[in-house]
Design goal:
With 382 residues, the chain is mainly beta. The chain is 8% helix and 45% strand. It has three helices and 31 strands. The N terminus is likely disordered. Strands 2, 3, 6, 7, 8, 11, 12, 13, 14, 15 and 17 form an eleven-stranded mixed sheet that branches. Strands 1-4-5-18-10-16 form a six-stranded antiparallel sheet.
Length: 382
């Protein structure tokens, strides 16, 4: 059987004790104050900052061949990617842009590390440019640790595989599918010997997306691979190339971490009076195991008017009981349940979406709710 490939940070996890000092020194020696358009970095661990808030890193560690990136004020592109490594091993590098701390190099003004229980939301956006004549993945990484460490490898790594080209695969093995953030993913789970890795692989290439990092964090907590008293230390977006890679680019990146508990996102949480009825569609994705489940719910406003404040009513099948929830306030934990918005997701534009989720226990055969009403109006189901 072909061994599962390691990836850039995973292999660095295995070598972290040896490389931490080198990486930190290299970052200090090669960091520019602020990147200008098309600033070129060819140093293996060279970094610079963009927008005064994010760090871009070349992060070439798995080969001695040259890799160069051109840094713009919104991202970077790989301009030279010499050499190749076997696709059943670790990749050549992880050129990336990040918010947070990586081997003691923290992005300017970041409020990471931050305890998970104190984060209400972590909205992020990413846009990629892909090429076909290479072997790589487009990876968005989310790092978690029991302590607010800034100096190296963390306990759990969440990887979002937005695209993969060639015979590359995540660490570990497939453990099923899950709906997170309103999208379906194939989920892989494994360990590189230093940290757990939970990977979400998109069934087809995603070129751009706006999403909440905390949706994936909470799903990871529900699987027992992190706890709410742990810390989010960094989020990083880039590429892991095994072969070639010239032309790959992150064309835009943003990351914000909003403080406040999940039920109190930085201010008072008052559902208020729902702003009228509207046409709607609900997607209900569930991840089920013996005795429990998580549900990810996406509400789409299919009407022509904005919704200001929402309440979604549904009935849980017999034997199911909600134990905790995120991005919504719940009335009822079994039988008839009403979910209402929290402070940051009460406004839903025409054609827009709101998402929330919950974890629960279950007994007997699992089933999904069969009907939903939004502000008193019946919704279609996806």
């Amino acid at each position: 059987m072909r061994p599962s490939p390691h990836h850039a940070r995973s292999a660095r996890g295995l070598l972290g004790a040896l490389l931490t000092s080198l990486v930190s020194l290299a970052a200090l020696l090669t960091t520019a104050s602020v990147a200008q358009a098309d600033t070129t970095i060819c140093q293996p661990f060279g970094t610079t900052t963009i927008q005064g808030r994010y760090v871009v890193q070349n992060n070439r560690w798995g080969t001695s061949a040259t890799q160069c990136i051109a840094v713009t004020d919104s991202g970077f592109r790989i301009t030279q990617a010499d050499g190749s490594v076997p696709t059943n091993g670790a990749p050549k590098s992880y050129p990336s842009v990040y918010n947070g701390c990586h081997y003691t190099n923290c992005s300017p003004g970041t409020n990471l590390p931050a305890q998970l229980s104190g984060i209400s939301s972590a909205p992020s956006s990413i846009s990629y440019n892909y090429v076909n004549d290479a072997a790589y993945n487009a990876s968005y990484d989310i790092w978690l640790d029991p302590t607010p460490r800034t100096d190296g490898v963390n306990r759990t790594e969440i990887m979002l595989w937005f695209n993969k080209v060639g015979s590359v695969q995540p660490i570990g093995s497939p453990v099923g599918n899950a709906s997170v953030g309103g999208r379906d993913w194939q989920v892989w789970s494994g360990s590189n010997g230093m940290n757990d890795v939970l990977s979400f692989v998109a069934p087809s290439a995603i070129t751009s997306w706006n999403f909440d990092v905390m949706d994936f964090v909470r799903h990871t907590v529900s699987r027992g691979l992190a706890q709410n008293n742990w810390y989010l230390t960094s989020v990083q977006a880039g590429f892991e190339p095994w072969q070639n890679g010239t032309g790959l680019a992150v064309t835009s990146f943003s990351s914000t971490v909003n403080k406040g508990s999940s039920g109190d996102p930085g201010g008072p949480s008052d559902p208020g009076t729902p702003g009228g009825s509207t046409a709607c569609k609900v997607a209900y994705g569930a991840n089920v195991w013996q005795g429990g489940f998580t549900a990810d719910v996406t509400i789409t406003n299919t009407g022509s008017a904005r919704v200001s404040g929402w309440k979604l009513a549904f009935t849980l099948p017999s034997g199911q009981q909600i134990t905790n929830a995120w991005n919504a306030n719940l009335s009822g934990s079994s039988g008839a349940v009403t979910a209402s918005n929290v402070g940051h997701n009460g406004e839903v534009a025409a054609g827009g979406q709101a998402t929330f989720g919950f974890q629960g226990s279950s007994s007997g055969a699992f089933a999904k709710p069969t009907a939903f009403t939004l502000n008193g109006t019946a919704c279609t189901t996806a």
